[in-house]
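Task: sequence in, structure out. Protein: Amino acid transporter.
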Amino acid sequence: MVSMIITSLVLAEICSALPLSGSIYIWAAESAGPKHARFFGFVVACWSTTSWITFTAANCQSTVNYIVSQLLVWEIDFPGGANNDNVRWRAMIWALSEGFLIISVMINYLPPRAYSGVLKFSIVIIFLDFLLCVIWLPIGVHNTYGFRSAKEVFTATYNGTGAPPGWNWILSFFFSASVFVGFDASGHVAEETKHANVVAGRGIIGSTLATGVFGFATTILFLFCTPDLETVFALDAPQPFVQIYALALGKGPSIFVTVVVILCSSMTSTVTILAASRLIFAIARDGVLPLSGWIGQVGQDGQPRNAVTVVFVIGAVLLCSVLPSEVAYTSLLSAGGVATIAAYGLIGLLRFTMTPHAFKASHFYLGKLARPFYSITILSMGLFVAVLISPFYFPVSAQSFNFACVIFGFVTIFAIVSWWLTPAEKWLRQQQIEQAFHSTEGRSDGGPPVRIIAVEVIPSKE
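Result:
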């Protein structure tokens, strides 16, 4: 939590100076300085695109896991068995996931004035879920199987990974960093945000604080409310928490909690598509790559609906990986988290080495704290990446191998090849780079810096 808050401050600093849609690859490009901007822009654009679109698919599939887990709670037989070895089971999960993806995309086709209501509804549902967890779940646990002891929660260890004790601890402790992935989302919609140079950066910091505080409270709560390890490892549902709800609250009440969680996850998918589509739109807007003209089009209300369609098509294709292999799909999702965290760390590295004194016009300029914060960002994000590409079970086999490292490497190589083959005038042109960079610095006449202004598109009454 501490290192991620510091990382969010590093990102908020450059977000305030460059409040543009697409955000993170623009931040990386400008952090590298004009000379190397295109190269790092290509790399982070590929990383972030991979991440946000896989997040979209992941959220839909996670939603379905809650639904199908109710079949095991009620002991309903499924032809061939309710497990990932059964192709019929995987086909059902795939079909339901595609359905939730369609629903989330349809919400993104609504008029812009509906977005505020969607987001407010999302916040209400998320807080309802949180309150159910911190109030109803503990009462149910107290009345059924009972809480775990404080000694067991805070001092007991269990090595279910087969890794050496030190690495097992690292996996257990730092794997929770994946919950922080995506706090840069407010930067992706900066051009649709009023006073974006302040509000977008504040959203990045606020998202990280909220995730850390509420996530920590929820983690401690679940550690006390989780049954003993023998019971936990006997749970065989795709989402074991559904069975835990049933054990603590009863089968009937577990349905209500599951429905609330499903709504939370669905709203998360909707917002993820919103952020991903703005990233795709920005990439298309910054060049004349294939289909970029169509992707970069906006409707009469200023919304990039073609970019939403692209996110849907790619997300739908990625979900098809559930059909042949669950291992391939989970590895793909893990790679998404790796790419985003790697981008955070890369921005910190570029700010530390190439542009440590730039972007002083930022509302969140770090001043004397800059270099220490850049250093912490580099080291902590490097460790998180190492954890997320590490095998989670030893000895490693074809079924337990974490293909995230392979996918992450492939995406990086693809980005480098794309940069090499794409002419400089085709995407993220040098003139754009230098104009953006110098607009955040002091003027040649010694006057104050000129901020980049985010444009708010207001449709006409006609």
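The chain has one domain: 2-439.
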